[in-house]
Structures are given as structure tokens and as C-alpha cells.
Amino acid sequence: MDDINKDDLFCDYYEKWIKIYKEGAIRKVTLDKYKMTLRWLRKLIPDLKIKDLTRISYQALLNNYALEHERQTTMDFHHQLKGSILDAVDEGLLDRDPTRKAIIKGKTPSVKKVKFINQFELHTLLDTLELKNEISWEWMILLIAKTGLRFSEALALTPADFNFSRQSISVSKTWDYKGDGGFLPTKNQSSIRKVQIDWQTVIQFSQLIKDLPEDKPIFVKGKVYNSTVNGVLERYCKKAEVPVISIHGLRHTHASLLLFAGVSIASVARRLGHSSMNTTQKTYLHIIQELENRDVDLVMRSLSGLS
Predict the structure, then answer these.
(1) Nearest-5° Cα angle at 273, 267 to 277
(2) Rounded to whole angstroms, how far apart are CA atoms 163 and 237?
(3) Radius of gyration of the chain, Cα coordinates, nearest whole angstrom
(4) pLDDT at 45 over 70
(5) Phi and psi (nearest 5°) for 169?
(6) Most CB atoms closer than 10 Å: which of 28, 60, 148, 214?
(7) CA triple 194-197-200, angle to 5 deg
(8) Per-residue pLDDT averaged across 26-50, rounded?
(9) Averaged over 132-144, what is the pLDDT?
(10) How far apart are CA 5 and CA 258, in angstroms?
(11) pTM of the prediction?
């Protein structure tokens, strides 16, 4: 970075910044987002020099990006740039922070798909699954509904990860379904965990995987696509006449059912492998608010009985 000066293109600076500060330090899926941001820089401001990056030129960059993206996506774009820009300020390449007071705009969000279904709808969905005597996507749907595992975590499960005597599944890796396959680290350190399972699941999976290789993924047979499993799940949702959700929606469903059942946020966060309870609170804010309203009603009823 010592070779960079104010007359260099900001795109070139950002590319070097990614290589020095991000490569090898973050997960590949996150690194790919930074590289996507770089491609947008080369498209939107290919000739902008570092010295010309002002509050006005930076705001214009955000505005142009926002023309084709929703506000949250524009916010992510801004955050991926801000770290590099603050470093440029620290290095004396910029006199002041051009990101200060940046206004985040964006396209009107599209209609969001249903993220989770209620307990009755989940029971109805699971009752329609055609569960046979060998591992299939139907069994994965059932397992994720009962454990809240991420799709990549479920794909990485091997027979060795099941401890039937302790009724638990060990989550310590993920599967690179977006790339060339193979095991990858978990999303974060908190994602390494043991997830308790019920006795019915123990009995079912102990039979299903008893003859499978201990160190091979039980669900992976060749190239795996997220869309394939989502397609299977969509077919069963329609058959059960419940809202269509994605495989990740099963994880949201699992968490929401636990919260509505009165399980603490801390326990849900650990079970899901969230890095902190803040993540759980932000993701399920609407449910938590609904539970708080229910608690207020309970408090008022309790107080009204006091004389």
C-alpha cells in the first residue's frame, strides 16, 4: 500500500485494500461480496481518483448504485466501502472522511416472500413428506425443521456427527455447495455447537445412516444446488396448502416456534449458532415484540387481581 498515492484510481486502491486486509481473513462468500463491490466501482466510477473522492462524489456513487438496488443492499455497499475509505484517511490519502453524513437511498423493496410458517402449518407440511427408507431431500427438510440448521451445515453432516446416545448432532463444518464442493469452516466460531434432537429423530436417523461411510456427507451425491431443495420444499408446501417458504425459511420457522413456546433468546441464539443474541433479536424482532405485547397483557391481568 506504500506505493499508492492520491493520483491513483480509487478502484485500484480498493482492489489492493481487499487483497491486503480481506483475503485470508474472511470467508469466501464474504470476500466475494467485496469483489462484487469492486466490480460495481469499476462500472460506476472507473476514472475517479482517490484525491477526487469528496462527500459529493461519494454521495453520487451511492445514488447511482441505489438506482438498481434496494436500500438494504445499498447500505451493505456503503459499509463495504467505508472501511477502505477510513483507512485512506488514516494514511493521509484523503484529508477528510467523504462518507460522513452519507444518505442511503434505494429502490422500493419488492414484496418479501413468507419467511416462516406457524406450528399448525409446519405439522401439516411435515405430514405430507414422503419419507422412505433411504436418505433423501425429504429427510433433510424434516431435519432442518427440527434442528434449525443452516442449509450448508445440514449438507456437511456425516454419520460421525450424530451422537445417538446423547441425542445430539455436532455442527463443526459446512459444505461448499456454491463452489466446487468440499468441507468449509462454519460461518463463525459460535456456529460450532451441539444441537439436541428428539428420540423420534434419533430412531429414524440411526436406521437411515447405519451403513453409510462415517466421514462422508449423508445428503451430498454430486453437485448440490440450493434451488433443487427449494423446489422440492415448494412442491410439498403446495401439496400441504401452506405458504411456500424456502429451506432457510425452515430455519426461521424453527426459531419462531421456539420463541413462541417461551424458549429464551439466549438458548435460541446458541441453538441457531448466532454470533450474539443481538443477531437473534434483530432477526426475530417482530416475534419478540409480539411476545412482549402478550407479556404486557399477562402483567395487566395479574395486577388487576390485586386488591
Answers:
(1) 55
(2) 31
(3) 24
(4) yes
(5) -120, 130
(6) 148
(7) 160
(8) 94
(9) 97
(10) 54
(11) 0.70
Confidence at residue 295, expressed as pLDDT on a 0 to 100 scale: 63
Other C-beta atoms closer than 10 Å to the C-beta of 5 total 12
Cα atoms found within 13 Å of the Cα of residue 115, Cβ hemisphere only: 12
DSSP sequence for 208-250: HSTTS-TTS-SS-SS---HHHHHHHHHHHHHHHTS----HHHH
Nearest to 277 by CA among 291, 290, 263, 261: 263
Please report which confidence band the pLDDT of residue 142 belongs to, taking 50, 70 and 90 as the band edges. very high
- The Cα 290–Cα 168 span in angstroms is 31
Give the single-character DSSP code of 15. H
Determine the pLDDT at residue 75: 96
Percent of the chain scoring above 90 in pLDDT: 78
List domains and CATH numbers for the chain.
Answer: 10-90 (1.10.150.130), 119-293 (1.10.443.10)
Per mean pLDDT, which range of 142-146, 172-176, 216-220, 264-268 is the poorest?
264-268
**CA–CA distance, 54 with 60 (Å, rounded to integer):** 10
The alpha carbon of 30 is separated from its chain's Cα centroid by a whole number of angstroms, namely 11
Residue 114 DSSP one-character state: P
- The cell 422412505 sits on which residue? 132
pLDDT surpassing 80 at residue 307? no
DSSP 160-198: GGEETTTTEEEE--EE-TTTT--EE--SSGGG-EEEE--
| Confidence tier at 114 by pLDDT (50, 70, 90) | low
Count the Cβ atoms, other than its own, within 10 Å of residue 44: 16
Please tell me the number of Cα atoms within 13 Å of 136 on its side-chain side. Answer: 9
CA nearest neighbour of 91 among 163, 3, 166, 208: 3
Rounded Cα distance, 225 and 68, in Å: 27
Cβ atoms within 10 Å, residue 24: 8
